[in-house]
Amino acid sequence: MLWTIIGLLILFWILGLVFEVAGGFVHILLVIALIVFIFNMITGRRGR
Length: 48
Hints:
The protein is mainly α. α1 packs antiparallel against α2. The radius of gyration is 12 Å and the shape is elongated. The two termini are 13 Å apart.
């Protein structure tokens, strides 16, 4: 689930760069996704 969200945000970021749509909003979402990804990698998989 997390990988899907990260993949979609990267896709939207690239599309935003190409078509110049949603300016800073896509960049903010990408930064949030990167922070969540790094946090997930540091803490590891607990449970599940």
